[in-house]
Amino acid sequence: MKELSTKEALWLSKQGESTSTVEKIELLQQEVQRYKEKCDTLTLELAEQESARRTAISEMEAREHTAWLEARQAKRDAEASKDDAAALRRKLAAMHQADGAVSPHRPVASP
Fold this sequence. Notes:
Layout: H1 2-99
């Protein structure tokens, strides 16, 4: 009888351990599931951030290209204005020479 109650106590102890082990396994499985969900969430967030970054880079490159085109056009316009000013100066000088006008800075020759 004593041996039976010892074996029964041992069996009950093992049952408790196995129940405890099953509970631990279930808790660990739940924890693994939470980590998988968190991993999926972070992966999705990373993909969204990469997409937003690519969009931002594309927009910046487009603005940069537009600014470059505007700068080139402004440079061409400045060069054209410079050429126009030089042409007007030459035309004015030619008109002064044709009219026989004397420059106000030139000394007058005596007769």
